[in-house]
Each structure stands twice: as structure tokens, then as C-alpha cells.
Amino acid sequence: MRHTEDDLRTLLDGYGRERPGGEPSADLDAIVRRGRRIRRTRRAAAGGAALACAVAAAVLVGGLPSGPPRADEAVAARPAPAPTPTAPAPELPDGFPVVLGDQRFDLSIIHSRRFEAVGAAGTVTFTPTSFFTGYQVVCDDPGAWVVTEQRLKGGERGGTAGRCGDGVGGHHDRLSAPSGWLEGPQSLKVWVFPADAPVREAAEAVTGCRPAPAARGCDESAQARALRDPEVRRRLSAEVGERQGRWAVGIYDRPAAAGAGPGSGSPAGTGHPVEGASTPAGRRGD
Amino acid sequence: MDDGFAEYVAHRHLRLCRMAYLLARDWGTAEDLVQTALAKAWTVWRRIEGNPDPYVYRIIVNTHASWWRRRWRGEIPAETLPETADPRDAVAEVEDQAALWRAIGALSPRQRAVIVLHYFEGRTLTQVADIIGCSPGAVKSQLGRALTRLRVDPDVQTMTLEEVQR
């Protein structure tokens, strides 16, 4: 059947008013906080670009080499909020506390991306402003499995894996960052699988899910290790497909002038990747 | 910094959310779209001259389009509307409305934005063109295609398009 313009107006007016749970309320503080974050990010990006030709050295997340990504692995749709009207989007902390020996300082968020599908991967590209660049992954479902992968100092790819709620993240230091870290954009690839994804089955089929020590069986830590294998991830991607599920990745760094070069007063590096360290104590709530 | 920003949010938030909902068809997304748009507007608030509405609408429309392009979509909308019962009765009327709502959801983000801005927000097509950032001719073309897909009365459709040409 056909409609008139009045039908269209009436329908839009009707649907635009029918919000379950009442009218949305404006949270001015949250809006302003978000505005400040946008401004900080823009300034940090501008500063990072200006100082990108400094030194190099230091690392990020550790972990075992995990092999090159496969072309048949699903890549996540985007970032964006919102599958459920009532649940707030997963929120990234504003800062990332770092502890290196007796040195303590906070990294500020310089970039973030949100995704709304699990069972796939997303890649975040960012421009580091220091050697201490860190990242944090947050998810709607803390039980979701998260795997990260990026270029390591030796040129190989590696990363970390675990349950999202356990605080998947990490940061580089001056000795762990790959060469050329400050010379241009870098990327981090993240896979998020649903909490009930058959990780154990995929791990046992591909790697045998060898635990260490063997007596512990194919427990969560063994499954997490197996997730670093690209074939395990490929199987899981094919098995679970893409599902709705929100998650986000935040990239954190120091202001360019504070930690970019040697002799800048920045803490000494460890030479080892620091993963999952310095998990922020609290999460922002805007 | 304020300069009327708080008043603008208090006054326009609800309306912006409703408009964003008609684009996104999900209240959570709509509220996030509006918060994102207002946060971006806040960063340049002092540089916005005159009525901030077109600027904020433009951010909402563009942000929605960019999210839509990348988001996961498990549902494949039908190209055409299913035929519904006729002569009309109460049930058929509800089904008609649901079918029209589904058809709006099947429009491209740009076409949906044109429909919502024109029929829900009451903007002229010139204003819609200004918000979306394209020519009135392109808006006219998008509107024509959208109305055809929505099976809106061709007489009324013709009238609308003639109004644009004046």
C-alpha cells in the first residue's frame, strides 16, 4: 500500500517519542568531560606529530610471537556504541598509571576506538608521543576473551591474551619499543571473542593446549596462551562468527616533551614488555 | 567555558535525541550520538555563530553515517515493502506503520537523514542541504529516491519536489 507525507510525519513523530523507560536526560558533566577528552586527544596528536623524529627503543606488551595475521580472519565492524538501549558503552579510563621501579607516572589517553562486534578483530592506528605508549581494552562483557598483537622490538609480532575483565593492557618502556616507534603511526590489532567461545576446543584441536605445568590441564592460562596462535583465532572466528558485543581500545601516552628522548628525565626502561601492568585503578564514568 | 552551552543542552537535548533515534533506531546509540555531537560542539562552542542547531545536526548526521558504515549488521533489509492487507482495518494499519518504519530503516543513512530532517525536524530542503553539506539538487534527488522506496504518494511527492525547484 502507499503512504502520504502526513503518514510519514505522524509515524516519525510517534516513533521519536516512544522511548522505553522515559525521556533521556542530559548529563552536562559527561558531555563536557568528553569534550575535554576530545580536545586533549587532538592536542596530543598534534604534539606527537611534531615530535615524531626523536629516538627509539623500548617496548610494549610482551608475550610470545604469534605469527602473521591471516587474511581469512574476520575483521571487526566498527566502533560505535550501542546495541542495547539501557546498557552504557564500555568506558575507558582517563589515565593509565605506570610503575617502573621507583618511578610512577600516569599516561593520558591519546586515542580510542570503539567496536560493536565480537568474534572478529579490529585494528587501532595511533601516533606515539613517547616510548611509554600503553593501551587498555575494555568490554561490555568482562568474560570476553581478548587477544592483542603488534610489532615487537625484534620485528616479530606478539601480544597478550586473557579475559577482558582481568585488565588486558600494557605499555612500552624505553628499551622495549620497536625501532622507529616515534617515527610515525603504529598499530595494534585486537581480537575479542565472546565469553562462551569454544577456546578450549579450538586450542586442543590446533595446539593440543599444552599446559605449563602439565598437571594443571588445559586451564584458562593455557587457553590464553593458545589464543596467541593465529590458527586458533582463525578457527574461533569461523566458529563463532560476528556477534554483537561492545568493546573499546584506549591508547595512552605521555606528552611528547616528557618522555620522548634520552636524557629527558624519563624512567629507565626494563628491556622487557610490560603487559597488564599498572592497570588503572578506576574507570571513568561519563 | 559556558556561553549558553548548558542552556542549549538543557533546551535541545531531548529533541536532538529524538532526531538521532530516528536515524539510529536505537536509543542507546541515539544518546551516544547526541553526547558525541554535543561534546564536539563544546570544543568549538565560542566559534559557532548564530543558531548552533545546523552545526550539531551535521555532526549527528555525519557521525551516524560513519558509525553505520562500519557497524556490524546481521539484518539485511528488504529492498521492497511487503504488501499488506487492504481494505484497511486496525491491524492492517499497525502493520502498515511497522512496514513503513522498517522501510525507513532500509534507507541509506543519507536518505534517512533527509527524510528525518525534512519531515520530523521540518527543515526546508535548502536547510537540509546546508546541514548535510551537499547541494539542494542532491537533496532533492535523495528525497525522491527515498520517497519512492517508501511508497509515499506520488502526487504529494511531485508537489514536494516542485516546491524545491522554486
TrEMBL record, chain A:
**Basic and acidic residues composition-biased segments:** 1-21
List, as start-end ranges, the regions of compositional bias called Pro residues. 80-91
Q: Where is this region: Disordered?
A: 1-25, 71-93, 255-286
State the source organism's domain of life.
Answer: Bacteria
Mind telling me which residue stretches traverse the membrane in this protein?
44-64
- List UniProt keywords, sorted A-Z: Membrane, Transmembrane, Transmembrane helix
Q: What is this protein called?
A: Uncharacterized protein
Q: Which organism is it from?
A: Planomonospora alba
Upper lineage is: Bacteria, Bacillati, Actinomycetota, Actinomycetes, Streptosporangiales
UniProtKB/TrEMBL annotation, chain B:
Region forming the signal peptide: none
- Ranges of residues in domain RNA polymerase sigma factor 70 region 4 type: 99-150
The entry's keywords: DNA-binding, Sigma factor, Transcription, Transcription regulation
Q: Does the keyword section mention Hydrolase?
A: no
**Pfam families reported in the protein's UniProt record:** Sigma70_r2, Sigma70_r4_2
SUPFAM superfamilies xref list: Sigma2 domain of RNA polymerase sigma factors, Sigma3 and sigma4 domains of RNA polymerase sigma factors
What are the residue boundaries of the RNA polymerase sigma-70 region domain, all occurrences included? 12-73
Protein family per UniProt: Belongs to the sigma-70 factor family. ECF subfamily.
Supply the NCBIfam families for this chain.
SigE-fam_strep, sigma70-ECF
* Annotated PANTHER family: ECF RNA POLYMERASE SIGMA FACTOR SIGM, RNA POLYMERASE ECF-TYPE SIGMA FACTO
* This protein's name: SigE family RNA polymerase sigma factor
What is the organism of origin for this protein? Planomonospora alba
